[in-house]
Amino acid sequence: MKYQRPKGTADILPNEATQWAAVESLAREVFKKYRYQEMRTPMFESFDVFSRTSGETSDIVTKEMYDFFDKGNRHITLRPEGTAGIVRAYVENKLYGPEIQKPFKTFYMGPMFRYERPQSGRLRQFHQIGVEAFGSDSPALDVEVVTLAMALLQSVGLNSLKLSLNTLGDNESRQNYRQALIAYLEPHEAELSADSKERLHKNPLRVLDSKDANDQKIVADAPSILDYLTPAATEHFTQVKEYLDALNIPYEVDSNMVRGLDYYNHTIFEVMSDSKAFGGKWTTVCAGGRYNGLVEQLGGPETPGVGFGLGVERLLLILAAEGIDLNEQHDLDVYVVGIGAETNAASLKLVQALRQQGFSADRDYLDKKPKGQFKAASKANAAYTLTIGQEELEQHKANLKNMANGHQEAIDLEQIYTDFGQAEAILAEKEN
């Protein structure tokens, strides 16, 4: 039998994993500047955590969730997105308590799972990096989250970005808009796709998010939610735009934009790239918004929230298409060449001492001849070789060779064990 990875998953091999690690490392650096701290939640949750928060008519709940009943007959779901699990943890661990600094800012990284047709940048097991901020209804926090998303993408080298912005208003705004949207769509009901017909009266905003080409033509002339905002919702969105203007962050208002999850309200946004990875078309890399009311849905007190999620696979496709390599040069500092079995212990001691001093070091484990070991050092692009044989052991020395210019010098082993940097300096001085 030939064993293969499950459809819609990917093996992240060592040469790729370094790029992943670089993205994650840069994200951590950016998040630290904004004072967001990491949370890690389980990869599976109770089904209700997502069905209650994501919306019964959303694609995630109706089509895409990996859910099952475990041996205890509990309805379990592999997490399809990050926010609901973070909110559940926020409520369960009472992170809204008076001793917790507000707003509470956190980030997450990890795999998510959705059963959908695998395609470029969209897998059944995919990875997200996201942030959430709880405890403030301020439009300034909306803008901080937007700027954080932009800063994260810019930190990895993306500059051709577009910020699309919209508001879904407060509850009153949405109710007013819902009625107007139903009134607009009902005359077109026969023309709508099956999914949109199902959603027309349950959640008409989902129709705006339809990927069906004919649905998109119909909603192109739909009324705008911006015409149904309450004064309070209008003021919130106006302040968001004013703050973005003050920060000189350009944006476009897309009044037909909705998010794929039902918990969003007020500010929503998408950051897009026109990378050639997706044919030069504007493609969403990162998206999010405000979700006041979500904490209450999972049993917590009234607590506003705002955040975003970023698809790592999609980001890496863009970086590859743009020729952006975040990998550090993991070239080898020192390769220890041991000549003869009697040098095994000494060469092990050398590589361990070098590693403890902060240098990358390696040696042969395949009983190669000296010539083969030097080839391995060259292939690993080692900066130096340290050669030790029977004679060097007796003299308590090792030959340090600069692989770039061929200069070498016998260095006391004790010097290497205690301060290899000084051994480099000795060789450099001899070279001059």
UniProtKB/TrEMBL annotation:
It comes from Ligilactobacillus pabuli. HAMAP family: His_tRNA_synth. Its EC number is 6.1.1.21. This is Histidine--tRNA ligase. It is an enzyme of class 6 (ligase). Keywords: Aminoacyl-tRNA synthetase, ATP-binding, Cytoplasm, Ligase, Nucleotide-binding, Protein biosynthesis. It catalyses: tRNA(His) + L-histidine + ATP = L-histidyl-tRNA(His) + AMP + diphosphate + H(+). Homodimer.
